[in-house]
Amino acid sequence: xxxxxxxxxxxxxxxxxxxxxxxxxxxxxxxxxxxxxxxxxxxxxxxxxxxxxxxxxxxxxxxxxxxxxxxxxxxxxxxxxxxxxxxxxxx
Length: 91
Known about the structure:
Helix content is 44%, strand content 21%. By secondary structure, the chain is of the alpha+beta class. It has a three-stranded antiparallel sheet.
């Protein structure tokens, strides 16, 4: 389970799984409950790289980020960490 502390959004934390390059079990702590449940359902099983491409840079109102953008950032960081661990498993 990956956990990510968000910045600049109503949601405070995102949790998700990466399995075989796909995103699963996305949940948000706080934020717009219905919208964030829907986002989790819509991205379930999505290719992680595709999610990053589609959601990166989205904004919410006057904010420079959004929950979708923060999810993209979290997934991108998790992909990078997983790649690093695959290269250096004893890290």
